[in-house]
Amino acid sequence: MSCIPKPQEVPEFSQQFRNAMAHLSAAVSIVTTNGAAGKIGITVSSVCSVTDTPPTLLFCINQNSSVHDIIKQNGKVCINVLSHEQEEMAKHFACMLCSSMEERFAWDIWDEGFDGQPVLRGSISSLQGDIVDTHSVGTHTIFMVELKHIDVMPNTGLVYFGRQFKGIEI
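Above: the chain sequence. Below: its structure as tokens.
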């Protein structure tokens, strides 16, 4: 899986939208999955709660991403909500630093979670569950996840704002 970005021309209105979204603070998470289609992870800032009955959240992935189909096929994920100390991991899984997926999962920072999903040690929350629905919107897929297991370890969080990672205290 290559992390080399494909140069693309972005229409002006789309670029305005991207600039506006850069001013929207968002928690940083690494979505991981392990199953018949493979073991992968990707940094996201699109996690959002949907409902607490049953506990459900959503996240979005670009359909052109090399991890998109693997996540969809495996049907199970762990959303690892990152602490401020995990900025480097966020960069690795966002392909901002050079490492292969195999190298990332070989590091001694992982536990096996509920149903075999990779759980990143030190995350402030790990939210594990089943993908129960997907919706295609433009270039992205919205994944709806019904949670089966939740671990919370309060710590200083990591957010993405102004195209930069920043620590934020509780």
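The mean pLDDT is 92.
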